[in-house]
Automatic annotation (TrEMBL):
It holds the Pfam family GDPGP1_C. Keywords: Coiled coil. PANTHER family: BARDET-BIEDL SYNDROME 7 PROTEIN. SUPFAM superfamilies: WD40 repeat-like (SSF50978). This is Bardet-Biedl syndrome 7 protein isoform X1. Residues 698-817 form the BBS7 GAE domain. Residues 26-174 form the GDPGP1-like N-terminal domain. Residues 930-1046 form the BBS7 helical hairpin domain.
Length: 1057
């Protein structure tokens, strides 16, 4: 049985010394002993030995040395290793930096388990393995295999980076030897290598630094390279405490350096040729050919290393300059961060712009970055949760007055921190949205909107739908206030006083509103609208409230919903800045009458809450400032080459001079925090040891949402926590199918069975294995988890999610999400001319509220409460079958019209059950048309034919690829049809992935339609007819004859497909 090596933070060795070179840690002893045992067992492809080693004469002094720990080597040597070149396994060819896991190719789950040295764990995961490298570069050369059974893509993430640094710190070895590379400060915590052929970036971890924050910072750069698909190498090593003379060998090693090189692709590595990789970029040169080894010079090596790294380094150098975090704040709600416009005095003195942030703890803080250091200008005491931050001031002047909404009140501050306004709006709900312009104040809760002028109430409007965002067009250009509401029912409402003047429906739910170019454009009447689907729409609104669409920016649904928008001008060009729930930050060039063009993109692991443009770190250099849900505030800069290099250089020198003081300040702050944590921990232990004192569990804010992706026919469940998520347990009392959860790079799936009396059904789409519950174990530092799922219409229940943070004492918080019977119907406001042929009518002694409740229990997207009208009407559309459902109801009456026969059956059963519970007598009538049946079969058959043909083609492609033929012989082995089929493989796979399991779902819908038709018509099912239908659904040849299985009078109405 494989041994387990347990460790904790106390086992990490930050300081080692050359004086204690003979001292070994427990980790060292285990590694050496087991590695030698594997060598004695003959598990290596060759017996490692240095066949030749020399020192290259020249400036860099490449040395030939032997490391104690190969993964911590930092020597500069040239080494001949012919066996590694000829006897090692041929590596896979990768076409992408983030290549998906492929079980058909070699991967580390296929290596002999005898090559495992031991498992290791710091109590967070027990699936991490250390294994021998059967083609070693040196003694004790080993492989770190994080979460070996999870079959994750072979890309580094925060978790694997963290354990790599931890394993290095578990060793007592001071290796590498006496050589260090020169580095200089580059930006924030990032340095760059100077006076060395391999151009790259360096991060330094010192003994007083927090490891988790260090890993998070380093991963920002790694994640950038992965998102840009830029090949890169990473090297982790111990280093000197200071850059001392090479002869000073008695100094301790009390810091860790992480080197990152962006590089050109190595392509298909020749097995017998010199190919620079991680060790070679650092100077450990491994040669596989004697002629190359004998002819090598420092000049030739320098040229190779420069060619591999210099072009990539120069390409991204400006992008990386300000890619790193400014600071960590409290949790930040949407639109609670603003960049103040620069005043004339600050511009004359070349000062940077100020940032104001309000967090959910009610703390308001303004700061400015001076000389590379955050300078706090003012900070308030905690108050109520801040829900929005706006900038205002007298029209025509600099808008630098700060307005905050909290609870039902609005507060105003000057840029010096003096409060000049405290106004209670008297709203019956907490303020959710706010907008300020001049002396006009617009606020809203979930449903109630109010307009104030000089703090005097002007108008109030009660919205029947949830309000997501509010705004008004430019007051001067439009000659008055025109309040605009973005509502959850897919519409924009324009108000005039307390009434709705105009309603305009969009293709998806509007989530945020922003004026074009921050002022509404040339005429002040252009409005940007961000949608739940991820699209952006530009509306033109006239003074008479008529609305037209100028353009719509269509993006893929996987990019995420829009959470914030800003417009920013730099380099003489207007830009559109977009923040998304998925963590994506996008920059588009912006024109009023043409669709924006994407210029830049960056992805982080948390949802974006605010985005602004400004010159934050250096005067004259534009940046994009971003806040995330958990409070990370960071900047992105895209510095063009023509910007004065002296400005950047001067800024770097200033930061470099203050770096020592900055580090001392941070260490002092960390020490104070550690001391406070220790005091509070002791208090907690003292209280909990006494039985009379109960333990108080912490309450953590959770941001969660579950919404329908109508393009891909799936639901997205997004959970975001202010603390690190340890695991998430899911239970549901109906069948739910999870998609791609086992391929999630941020989590590991654990399946378990509950007690027999608990009825829970969760299915993994990949294996279709029915489970009682499912636990998703998250990686370290994961604060956001996204799951994709689908279910069959007709199934309904509650999905219960237990979220456990990585905190002590152990606790969890519970969220519940309803799975509604008609979950693939969504609200629509299309002009429906066609009237469905089937209907369901109910009458009885029920109230309007009860009718509203019954319908909302079946259909998603219904408002929480019915509108204050006697007769209500709603329209829905099935995203799977494209059928419409018209719903009209009032007190004592419900009328449903649709061609979806299954929907009528589902609604009939649910209405009957709800009425029975309340003891309400119902008169129920319905009519099921044969035309509706024919229409449904037409739709299902046409979609099924496409899916069955695609599935058949993909299976045929897999069979062809397994044949020992060469598809590139111009048709000698394969026909043109087969060659064309192979060329379309990726397109077919992409189409199948966009609508997962649609074929199985359509087949289930057809079977449900068969059952519902017989049930509603009161007909008996003929023997074997259902089995015949199941068999007919499997092939395209029999689909056209499906109508013959149904007992209807007119069987000629089926359209030919």
């Amino acid at each position: 049985m494989l041994k387990m090596f347990y460790y904790d933070d106390k086992d990490l060795i930050f300081t080692t010394s050359w004086k204690s070179l003979s001292v070994s840690s427990k980790f060292d002893e285990s590694l050496k002993r087991l590695w030698k045992n594997k060598e004695d067992e003959g598990l290596f492809r060759y017996n490692y030995k240095e066949e030749n080693a020399i020192v290259l004469p020249g400036k860099y002094g490449f040395l030939a040395v032997v490391s104690i720990l190969q993964f911590s080597v930092a020597s500069k040597d040239r080494q001949l290793n012919i066996n590694r070149g000829t006897k090692r396994r041929k590596p896979n060819i990768f076409t992408s930096v983030s290549e998906p896991f492929n079980d058909n190719l070699f991967n580390f789950t296929k290596i002999n388990e005898g090559e495992y040295l031991f498992k290791f764990s710091n109590a967070s995961n027990t699936d991490d393995v250390l294994a021998i490298n059967t083609s070693p570069l040196g003694y004790f050369h080993s492989l770190i295999l994080p979460k070996i059974n999870s079959k994750l893509p072979q890309v580094i993430n925060e978790y694997s980076l963290n354990i790599a640094v931890q394993l290095l710190l578990l060793s007592a070895s001071p290796e590498p030897s006496s050589f260090t590379l020169d580095i200089e400060h580059f930006s924030g915590p990032c340095h760059k290598i100077i006076d060395y052929p391999s151009k790259g970036f360096v991060f330094v971890l010192k003994s007083g630094d927090l490891l988790s924050n260090f890993v998070k910072t380093v991963f920002i750069l790694i994640n950038y390279l992965q998102q840009k698909n830029i090949p890169h190498n990473i090297f982790i090593t111990r280093a000197l405490a200071k850059d001392l003379n090479i002869d000073d060998l008695n100094n301790s090693r009390n810091c860790v350096r992480v080197f990152i090189w962006a590089r050109t692709s190595s392509g298909d590595k020749a097995m017998d040729k010199f190919s620079p990789a991680t060790c070679e970029l650092f100077g450990h040169l491994v040669f596989k050919d004697k002629s190359e080894f004998s002819e090598v010079t420092e000049y030739s090596v320098t040229k190779i290393l420069t060619d591999v790294t210099e072009s990539s380094f120069l390409l991204i150098e400006n992008d990386i300059k300000n890619l790193l975090d400014y600071t960590l704040l409290g949790m930040v709600s949407s639109n609670c961060m603003k960049v103040l416009p620069i005043s004339q005095n600050d511009e004359a003195e070349k000062k940077t712009q100020k940032i104001i942030v309000g967090d959910q703890e009610g703390i308001v803080q303004m700061f400015q970055i001076r000389k590379g250091k955050i300078n706090m200008l003012f900070k308030t005491l905690p108050l109520e949760k801040i829900t929005e931050v706006c900038l205002g001031g007298t029209l025509g002047t600099v808008q630098d007055k700060i307005f905050l909404s909290m609870g039902t009140s609005v507060r105003g501050y000057t840029k010096k921190g003096r409060m000049f306004l405290s106004f209670d709006t008297g709203l019956l709900e907490s303020i959710k949205c706010m907008y300020v312009t001049g002396n006009e104040l617009l606020v809203s809760g979930k449903h109630l909107f109010s307009h104030f002028n000089d703090c005097k109430d002007i108008s109030t409007y009660l919205c029947p739908e949830v309000i997501n965002s509010i705004i008004t067009l430019d007051v001067i250009k439009m000659q008055g206030v025109m309040p605009i509401l973005a509502c959850a029912d897919l519409c924009i409402r324009i108000l005039e006083g307390s009434t709705v003047k105009e309603t305009f429906y969009l293709s998806s739910e509007p989530t945020t509103l922003h004026l074009m170019k921050n002022n509404g454009g040339s005429y002040g009447n252009e409005l940007l609208v961000g949608l739940q689907s991820g699209h952006i729409v530009l509306l033109k609104i006239e003074k008479n409230a008529s609305i037209s669409i100028l353009w719509e920016l269509v993006t893929q649904s996987k990019q995420g919903a829009i959470t914030c928008i800003d417009c920013y001008e730099f380099n003489g060009e207007d830009h559109l800045l977009i923040g998304r729930q998925s963590g994506l930050v996008e920059v588009y060039s912006l024109e009023s009458h043409s669709v924006p063009i994407e210029k830049y993109k960056y992805s982080c692991s948390e949802s974006i809450t605010s985005i602004q443009g400004g010159a934050i770190r250096t005067f004259g250099i534009p940046e994009i400032v971003v806040t995330t849900f958990t409070g990370w505030l960071f900047g992105l800069t895209f510095v063009d080459q023509h910007i004065d290099k002296e400005i950047v250089l001067d800024s770097s020198n200033i930061i470099l001079n203050d770096e020592k003081q900055k580090i001392l300040d941070i260490r002092t702050e960390v020490s104070d925090l550690e001391r406070q944590v220790a005091i509070e921990r002791n208090k907690y232990l003292e209280f909990t040891q006494k039985s009379s004192r109960p333990s108080v569990l912490p309450y953590l804010a959770i941001k969660n949402s579950m919404f329908l992706d109508s393009e891909n026919l799936i639901y997205h469940l997004i959970i975001e926590l202010e603390a690190t998520i340890d695991n998430v347990l899911l239970q549901c009392n109906c069948l739910v199918n999870l998609i791609d959860v086992e391929n999630n790079n941020n989590a590991v799936v654990s399946k378990s069975k509950c007690k027999e009396e608990v009825t829970v059904n969760i299915t993994l789409d990949s294996s279709l294995q029915e489970l009682d519950c499912l636990i998703v174990k998250c990686q370290l530092n994961t604060t956001k988890l996204e799951l994709k799922m689908w279910s069959h219409e007709g199934d309904h229940g509650i999905l219960t999610v237990y979220i456990t943070p990585l905190l002590q004492p152990k606790c969890c918080q519970v969220c519940k999400f309803p799975i509604k019977p008609l979950l693939y119907h969504q609200r629509t406001k299309k002009n429906i001319v066609y009237q469905p042929q089937s209907f369901l009518t109910l009458s009885g002694g029920f109230s309007l509220s009860e009718a509203h409740l019954w319908i909302s229990n079946c259909l998603p997207g219904f408002p929480e409460k019915p509108a204050s009208q006697e007769n209500l009407e709603y329209s829905f559309e099935s995203v799977i079958l494209d059928t419409v459902l018209l719903c009209a109801y009032s007190r004592g009456s419900i009328n449903i019209k649709t061609d979806n026969i299954t929907a009528i059956a589902i609604l009939k059963d649910n209405f009957s059950r709800d009425a029975t519970r309340k003891n309400i007598k119902l008169d129920m009538t319905y009519e099921i048309s044969e035309g509706s049946l024919i229409l449904m079969i037409d739709v299902i058959v046409s979609k099924l034919k496409t899916d069955i043909n695609n599935d058949k083609t993909l299976k045929l492609i897999n069979a062809i690829k397994q044949l020992s033929v060469n598809p590139n012989i111009n048709g000698e082995s394969l026909t043109k049809d087969y060659l064309l089929m192979l060329s379309n493989e990726e397109k077919l796979k992409q189409e199948a992935s966009l609508r997962p399991s649609r074929m199985q779902r359509l087949q289930a819908i057809m079977l449900a339609l068969f059952d519902d038709w017989h049930k509603l018509k009161g007909l008996n099912v003929k023997p074997n007819s259902r089995e015949d239908l199941q068999e007919a659904l499997l092939t395209t040849n029999t689909l056209d004859s499906l109508i013959s299985i149904y007992p209807i009078a007119n069987k000629k109405g089926l359209l030919k497909i």
